[in-house]
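Input record (one chain):
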Amino acid sequence: MITAELLDKFKSLYKEQFNITLSDEEATHMATDFLNLMKVLLRPEPKDEKVKKAIPAPKGQIYETK
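The corresponding structure, as predicted from the sequence alone:
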């Protein structure tokens, strides 16, 4: 869950960078997508092949956008 303070910061940075004002709903959706992407990219990769096969993909953290 994204706090109101972090959501406002995200909206402010987005406005600064792209000169587009986001609604709370748009900002929440975009920030959540960004955080989910970062979780996937920053997850350490196991060195042992057996461990790689044993770790399932996270459920419910990543979803398709429209």
